């Protein structure tokens, strides 16, 4: 008890001494308390047959029946598989393009051209997915879409993109990479900028070519950042880009087998079917799966590359 009192006193003494720094992180702390910790008891909905009239804790407790129903219908496996595969593709291709563009821009010599190029690549990140959805619709629409109009004008048969399940996984990944490359590129570009110029100068004196500098200096020194961002990405590997999927696919049930993810399934459960319990069950499963995956991957990384692990 005495040790706890001493620790509390030391904590408040530290707060008083560094009050400006603590004041700066206060909005973040409040944000997580309000939007992450206070709503946590709501996870109990996943274990009850929720009734709005009875409330969360007054509803009938059903245990794991909501999870059992999802497993039996096959929906849980389908949406988990789709979410995992899409997010793995997003993580892989986004990081690949982000690193590639960061290296290319860092090698540009013209300051003005470098800034313009960086701004152009970053621009898609700020474009709303609602606009992306309209753009995709005007591109792939069967009757008046640009691609089908072009096919008709050159005498070829039109293609019904919104009835073709197989093509949309490529379209979705393309739009995700297109929108995220600029933002991630800035992070990697900042890492490259932080690399000491003395290393490159020493390599140049030894006769290293630009390609050799990239291969033996830039890429190895980017490895820690790549692993760190990959681990952060794994934490949300079951949290799909709802805005992207919903605005591209909408309620087109024909495409659901290939494009339905956990977030869109939960949305339809809440809005279309008013099934709060099943939606909460999927959300709870999503969070636990992500936590276990991050802990597992972090353990593996810690054994292979201890300096790159999260903790």
Q: How many helices does DSSP assign?
A: 14
* Helix amount: over 70%
- Uncertain regions spanning at least 5 consecutive residues: none
Q: What is the rounded Rg?
A: 25 Å
With strands numbered from the N-terminus, the spatial order across the biggest sheet is 1-2
- The SSE string, one letter per element, is HHEEHHHHHHHHHHHH
Structural class: mainly alpha
Q: Kindly estimate the percentage of residues that lie in beta strands according to DSSP.
A: under 5%
Distance linking N and C termini: 29 Å
Shape: flat
**Major sheet: size, sense and barrel closure?**
2 strands, antiparallel
Residue-averaged pLDDT: 84
Tally of extended strands? 2
Describe the 3D structure.
The protein is mainly alpha-helical and 311 residues long. Helix content is 72%, strand content 4%. The chain is built from 14 helices and two strands. It has helices spanning 2-17, 19-37, 65-73, 75-106, 111-122, 129-140, 146-153, 165-193, 197-205, 210-235, 242-249, 256-259, 262-271, 276-304, and strands at 48-51, 55-61. The chain has a two-stranded antiparallel ribbon with strand order 1-2. Strand 1 and strand 2 (55-61) form a beta hairpin. Helix 5 runs antiparallel to helix 8 (165-193). The protein is flat. The protein starts with a helix and ends in a 7-residue tail after the last helix.
């Amino acid at each position: 008890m005495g040790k706890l009192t001493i620790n509390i006193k030391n904590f408040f003494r530290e707060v008083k001494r560094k009050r400006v720094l603590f004041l700066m992180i206060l909005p973040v702390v409040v944000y997580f308390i309000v939007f992450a910790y206070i709503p946590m008891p709501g996870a109990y909905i996943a274990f009850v047959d929720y009734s709005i009239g009875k409330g969360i804790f007054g509803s009938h407790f059903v245990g794991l029946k909501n999870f059992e129903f999802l497993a039996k219908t096959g929906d849980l496996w389908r949406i988990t598989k789709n979410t995992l595969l899409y997010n793995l593709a997003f993580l892989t291709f986004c990081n690949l393009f982000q690193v590639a563009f960061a290296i290319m821009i860092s090698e540009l010599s013209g300051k003005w051209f470098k800034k313009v190029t960086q701004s152009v690549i970053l621009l898609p990140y700020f474009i709303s997915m609602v606009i992306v959805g309209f753009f995709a619709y005007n591109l792939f629409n069967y009757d008046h879409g640009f691609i089908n109009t072009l096919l008709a004008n050159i005498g070829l048969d039109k293609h019904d993109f919104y009835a073709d399940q197989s093509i949309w996984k490529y379209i979705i990944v393309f739009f995700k990479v297109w929108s995220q490359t600029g933002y991630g590129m800035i992070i990697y570009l900042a890492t490259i900028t932080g690399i000491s110029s003395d290393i490159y100068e020493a390599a140049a004196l030894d006769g290293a070519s630009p390609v050799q500098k990239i291969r033996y200096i830039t890429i190895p020194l980017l490895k820690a950042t790549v692993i760190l961002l990959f681990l952060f990405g794994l934490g949300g590997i079951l949290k799909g880009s709802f805005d992207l999927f919903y605005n591209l696919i909408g309620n087109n049930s024909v495409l659901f087998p290939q494009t339905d993810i956990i977030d869109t399934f939960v949305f339809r459960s809440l809005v279309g079917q008013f099934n709060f319990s099943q939606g909460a069950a999927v959300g709870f499963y999503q969070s636990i799966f992500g936590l276990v995956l991050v802990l597992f991957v972090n353990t593996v990384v810690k054994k292979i590359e201890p300096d790159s692990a999260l903790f």
